[in-house]
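user: can you give me the structure for this one chain? tokens are fine.
assistant: on it. calling the predictor now.
[tool input]
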Amino acid sequence: MLYAQGLEHFIERCNAAMPPDFYRHPLTEQRALYESLVEVFHYEVPAGVVVADHRAEYEGRAIRVRSYRPPTRSGDGVIVYIRGGGFVVGSLHTHDTVAAELADKTRLLTVAVDFRMSPEHPFPAALEDCYAALNLLLQDRFDNVADFDHDTVLVVGDSSGANMAVTVAMMCRDRRGPKVRGMGLISPVLDLTRWRHGGEDAPLLTGGEMEYYTACYCPEPEQAWHPYVSPILTGTFDRLPAAYIMGAELDSLQVDGIQLAERLTEHGVPVQHIVEPGLVHSAVRARGYSPAVADAWQRFCSAVADIAGARLPADV
């Protein structure tokens, strides 16, 4: 197995902080271990990015988001960012600097969505929260987040967040909801049926971990076949927005991105799919440790800006 420069050491540090069997630990400990990665791999919010928290009511529940305003904007679009974490772990804090860098590198207003997590709140709770946040955003219900072009909305996600980015775009189409202009997807997981009884191990993503996440998100086996859970199996792909998919060569989910690109192409949807050599699942946390990851992350952000029609300076 040939890792990109810096990734072998990165993987060792990840496994030391959060062992591969972490999912066997009590839930509160799992989440604490995942949160600890923020300190193990420390990044700063880019200078000039203004961060603010917002909340609004939707159908009797509170929806929380965090906005990131770059110091200068390349366009009036907005990115709705949905974090990864297997639907089970993670928070606005764990992906804070990723969302901040996304805003800074694209020079677009970025809004990260908080959502209820499994197993306390299985499918479709998290997905409905993300859809609600997008609707509230377009209804200008979050204070001080109204100055963007409502026709230039992009959904961006990583791993399970990429699953929800795709399915939110499907929901918007199916429910005649907000118009989504594009999708930016990193290592999407799009078929949960194949993990019901475990599967192959890969660096930073074991078959046991995926089996656990699947059981938490879809406690009823038939739920894994739902088009908003495993869209690659039962979803429809006509009238979806343009997409940029960042895959990883050493990721057991690489096939999901390949199949999605094929489905989108078959339905005439513009898509660009890049399998990054030597990278592992959701490697963006290694952007400060691996030149290959840093380059892939920069190209991902540039592609998202391109879909939005943003005009970036030549040095970005």
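assistant: here you go. The chain has one domain: 7-308. The beta strands are 50-58, 61-69, 78-82, 109-113, 153-158, 182-186, 242-250, 271-280.
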